[in-house]
Design a protein that fits this description.
alpha+beta, Alpha-Beta Plaits, globular, binds (R)-mevalonate
C-alpha cells in the first residue's frame, strides 16, 4: 500500500477570467487529499461519496485517471481509499487534488516514470474530460504547490499571512458556473470581456505586491476582484454574507474563491485576528478554518 497526497488551492485573483486566457494568481493551501492505493483483483474506490467499482457517475475523476493511466501501465485492478480535508464542490480544488494524487499513486505503484509536468498535464486533460471547459490552474497548482501566476506558470513568493477559508456549505458545480459565465459573455461580449480582462490585469498588477509581501495592496485588489465576480454572476447571498462578516471583523480582504455560486470564500488575516474572522463567519451561518499557503505540491507520504 502506498499513499500520495496533493494540496487544495485558493485563488487570490482570476478565477473564471483564467478560462479565457487571462492571468490568475492561485495558491496551494495546507489542506490536502490523500489517496491510499494498492494493487487488487478488481477496481474498488472508497471515499465519502461511497464505495464503488468503475462508476463514472460517483467517482468521475478517479475513473478517468484509471482509464488514462492504462496508457502507461497494465492496471488490472486497484483499491483506492480517498481521504480528504477538502470539501467536495467547494471551490478549494478538491477534484484537482484527488486527480493529481491518484495519478501520482499509480505512477509510484507501477513505476510509470511520469514527471511533475506530465502529472499536471494529465490532470488537466482529465479535468477537461469531466468538466468541459477547465483551465490548467487547479491541477498545476495542486501538482507544484506554492503561489503561481497562470498562464505563465511562474512561481511567486509564499503568502505568509493566515488564510481563513469560509464555507457556505452550498454545493457549487464548476461546470455549471463556467457555463453560466460563457452564456453571459455570449449575450453581452462588450460588457463581460472587459470585466474578464480587468480581472486578468489585476493579477498582473498584484504580482509585485505578492513578491514584496504587501498584503494591504493585495487586499485592496482582491476586494475589487470580488466586486467583478459578483458582476459576472457567480456570487450568492451566502457568499456575500460571509465576505462582509470577514471584512467587518478585521480581515485584510475577503472574496469568493473558485467557481462561486456557493462553496467557499477566503479572507487574508493578520497574525492576531484570524480567529476573530472565523468567529464572525460562523456567526452568520458559515463554517471556517484557518490555513496557510504551502510550497509542497503532490507528494508520496
Ligand atoms: C474553478 O476552481 C476555477 C474556474 O476558473 C474554472 C477553471 O479555472 O477551470 C472557475
Amino acid at each position: 500500500m502506498i499513499t500520495c497526497s496533493a494540496p487544495g488551492k485558493v485563488y487570490l485573483f482570476g478565477e473564471h477570467a483564467v478560462v479565457y486566457g487571462e492571468n490568475a494568481i492561485c495558491c496551494a493551501i495546507e489542506l490536502r487529499t490523500k489517496v491510499h492505493a494498492e494493487k487488487a483483483e478488481d477496481v474498488i474506490i472508497e471515499s465519502v461519496l461511497g464505495t464503488t467499482g468503475m462508476d463514472i457517475e460517483v467517482h468521475p475523476y478517479v475513473c478517468h485517471v484509471l482509464k488514462k493511466m492504462q496508457q502507461f501501465a497494465d492496471i488490472k485492478g486497484i483499491r483506492f481509499k480517498i481521504e480528504s480535508e477538502l470539501p467536495v464542490g467547494s471551490g478549494l480544488g478538491s477534484s484537482a487534488a484527488v486527480t493529481v494524487a491518484s495519478i501520482e499513486a499509480l505512477n509510484q505503484l507501477y513505476g510509470c516514470g511520469l514527471s511533475l509536468e506530465d502529472i499536471a498535464g494529465l490532470g488537466h486533460e482529465i479535468e477537461k474530460t469531466v468538466q468541459g471547459n477547465a483551465s490548467p490552474t487547479d491541477t498545476y497548482v495542486s501538482t507544484m504547490g506554492g503561489v503561481v501566476m497562470i498562464p505563465q506558470r511562474k512561481k511567486l513568493k509564499t503568502i505568509k499571512c493566515p488564510i481563513v477559508v469560509g464555507n457556505t456549505h452550498k454545493f457549487s458545480s464548476t461546470k455549471e458556473l463556467v457555463a453560466n459565465v460563457a452564456k453571459l459573455r455570449n449575450e453581452f461580449p462588450d460588457i463581460i470581456d472587459p470585466i474578464l480582462s480587468d480581472i486578468g490585469r489585476m493579477s498582473l498588477l498584484a504580482e509585485k505586491s505578492v513578491n514584496e509581501k504587501d498584503y494591504k495592496t493585495i487586499g485592496k485588489l482582491m476586494n475589487v476582484n470580488q466586486g467583478l465576480l459578483d458582476a459576472i454572476g457567480v456570487g450568492s447571498a451566502e457568499l456575500s454574507s460571509l465576505v462582509y462578516a470577514a471584512r467587518n471583523s478585521g480581515a485584510i480582504c475577503a472574496k469568493i474563491t473558485g467557481a462561486g455560486g456557493g462553496g467557499c470564500m477566503i479572507a487574508l488575516a493578520e497574525d492576531n485576528n484570524a480567529s476573530d474572522i472565523v468567529n464572525a463567519i460562523e456567526d452568520v451561518g458559515g463554517s471556517a478554518i484557518i490555513t496557510r499557503n504551502t510550497e509542497e505540491g503532490v507528494r508520496l507520504e
